[in-house]
Amino acid sequence: MPNVNAFEILDGEYDRGLVLLADHATARVPESYGNLGLDPSVFTRHIAYDIGVEMLTRKLAETLSCPAVMSTFSRLLIDPNRGEDDPTLVMKISDGAIIPANHPLSEEERHYRLDHFHRPYHTAVGGVLERVARQSGRVPLVLSIHSFTHAWKGVARPWHAGVLWDGDPRIARPLIDRLAAIEGVVVGDNEPYDGALKGDTMNRHCMETGIPHALLEVRQDLIGDEAGVNLWAKRLAPIFADLNDDPALHVIRRYPSRT
């Protein structure tokens, strides 16, 4: 059995109707896997986890008194934000770094990681969503927190934050508008990535079920320390609270997916 849990649940007021998720919160790998054959320095990089997201999620959950679910394993082990049949579920190479323990990967090992890490995390997400729906008496509102690098392949990224979404605009559009209204903040609409990804966390738990949701990306250099986390939590908390306070958003509504 693995010697790290697959998830951590931050308890909050389940009757509020709001849930935070952090798919890539940490760079941890069970001791039995060593460093996956990598130099330990790799686990300080974005390829191992979303820098700043654990601190930001904890701060937002505390400020908003809402529950959150965070993964507790590195995405280099297995990526919880990928479908089980996605070819990038277990990366063999990431941003130039070859992961020796992932290539070759036997089917037995692939299923082991699914059974002990990927699936337990998603079971926990589903359980929290069910508990929030039961205790609040309404459909949950879900916000997934991620972060991205300030540059990619030598090209600077201009955005301070990005909102990723597929076919459901209910949370994404007002979130983009509110972020864009903050002086000096450049916000991306499905930048730096496209939010339509079959089998990912938002697709699986929200698009397919009709739960209102959005995925927020914050640039890593802006939340890499306590001061940055506090600033972004102060910016985001009232926006999230206002969205959650709108009863019109807490309904099941299915939209066509672009996947």
From TrEMBL:
Keywords: Hydrolase. Pfam families: FGase. SUPFAM superfamilies: Zn-dependent exopeptidases. InterPro entries: N-FG_amidohydro, UCP029730. GO terms for molecular function: hydrolase activity. Transmembrane segments: none annotated. This is N-formylglutamate amidohydrolase. It comes from Martelella endophytica.
